[in-house]
Structure formats: structure tokens, C-alpha cells
Specification:
Number of helices: 8
Low-confidence stretches: none
Helix content: 55-70%
Distance between the termini: 55 Å
Order of helices and strands: HHHHHHHH
Radius of gyration: 26 Å
Number of strands: 0
């Protein structure tokens, strides 16, 4: 059975949301979420029964699941949590280097360069890391960024 999350705004929250909508200088998703909360408020003075998620979604031209998610975030995280976006659980691309791989890179960079070379280049480090199967593939700029972070 689905949980029903009731939005009960205080007078100060209601006035803050109204001001946010009227100002119009905030990102569109925050304005939409504010409109969802104002329409979902059970203490609104419209006199009728609380609006359903489908009715609010139809009025605001969004999906009913969006309305449900905003209600849920308001109940669980408060006003700021409902106005903001849901943070990602994982980054969009996983990091290439973790602690162990970074240590291997630094160890390699501090070691003596291969025969015929006077020093390590970033491209040479990247190629060597791939040859040693530390990583599947890496660019010289990524190697530079990791080394610069540790410098």
C-alpha cells in the first residue's frame, strides 16, 4: 500500500513559497516544486478536499510521480529538501582512480623513468598505467589532474 504524504504548510512557509514564485528569478524546477507544495497544502483556504497528485500534475503540466516525490521530500526533509533536486546516489561517471590506483601512479611517477628517457611524461605515465593493467584507459590530462591534486 502506498504511503500518503500530507503537506501542511505553516503561514511563514506559505508566504515564502508565494514570494519565491512571484519573484521569478529562481530556477524553474524550484518554482515548479513551490507550486506543487502550495497546491498540495491541506490547510489551503480553497475550502475543498485536498487535491490529488494527478490533479496537481495536470494543472502544472508535470508527471504525477513528480508531485508524489516532492510531497515525500517535504515530509521527510523539510522545505529546502523539497525545493531542491534529489542528490544523486552515484556520480554520473565512476572515478577512474581510487586510493590504491592513485598510489600506484604516484609510485610510478617517483620511480626512475624507462631506459632512453630522462623523465616521465604524462603520456608515458598514462601508457604505462594501461600496460601494467592498473586502469583500462586513461588520458594524460587525467594523470595530470591526479598528480596535481597530490602536489
Amino acid at each position: 500500500m502506498n504511503k500518503i504524504y500530507l503537506v501542511d504548510l505553516t503561514e511563514s512557509e506559505r508566504s515564502r513559497l508565494t514570494a519565491l514564485i512571484k519573484r521569478g528569478t529562481t530556477p524553474a524546477y524550484r518554482i515548479r516544486n513551490a507550486q506543487i507544495l502550495l497546491n498540495a497544502d491541506i490547510t489551503a483556504d480553497d475550502g475543498g478536499p485536498p487535491k490529488t497528485d494527478a490533479a496537481i500534475a495536470s494543472y502544472l503540466h508535470c508527471h504525477a510521480k513528480t508531485v508524489s516525490n516532492v510531497r515525500k521530500r517535504f515530509v521527510e526533509q523539510g522545505l529546502e529538501g523539497a525545493l531542491g533536486r534529489k542528490p544523486r546516489d552515484t556520480p554520473p561517471t565512476p572515478p577512474i582512480f581510487d586510493g590504491e590506483k592513485e598510489a600506484r601512479l604516484i609510485t610510478l611517477a617517483c620511480s626512475t623513468p624507462p631506459a632512453g628517457r630522462s623523465r616521465w611524461t604524462l603520456q608515458l605515465l598514462a601508457d604505462t598505467l594501461v600496460e601494467l593493467k592498473v586502469v583500462e584507459g586513461v588520458s594524460a590530462s587525467t594523470v595530470c589532474r591526479v598528480l596535481k591534486k597530490r602536489a
